[in-house]
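Study this chain:
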Amino acid sequence: MSRIPLAAAFMCVLSSLPVAAQTPAVTFPGARIAFFNGQRVAIESETGLAALAEIETFQTEASAELARRNQALLGQRQQLQTQSSLLIDSARLDMEHRLERETLDLQRLVDDAQKEFQELQQRLDGVFLAQLEPAVAAVASDTSVHFIFDRVISPIAWADPTYDLTDRIIERLDAN
């Protein structure tokens, strides 16, 4: 019961404090908005295609090296299985240790390839974005647009396709 009068007194004190002046909302009645599809720009522009080609080259080379090393390791395992009964204990243990080292080396190679791939992807993303931003800014200036959203990243549920600037952005990006 004593909480209700205390709360009422607290509200009275709060209501008597000066209120900071509220700034009127700023409106932009003539703001022009458009969008583009960043994913399409990445796979259709020359810059994006060059980056994808570099990634594919890396993946092909890394996969070939990993497959070669894995095949060699499988051959060594098969050799150990077929010759195990013929080998003396020290030779068999030596072969098992070599297999363990080769297995660890292969796992390290896989880990290194994954790390290199991530670094390559980050570097190429940075290069692509560095070239994309001026192209988007130039298209925005050419079309007198105030805001351009990437439809793939931004939460746009629907947009009129006439405001899609993807083709213009690809053209501008390729022109540079």
The CA atoms of residues 71 and 77 lie 10 Å apart. The chain has one domain: 30-175. Residues 89-143 form the longest helix (55 residues). Confidence is low (pLDDT under 50) at residues 6-15.
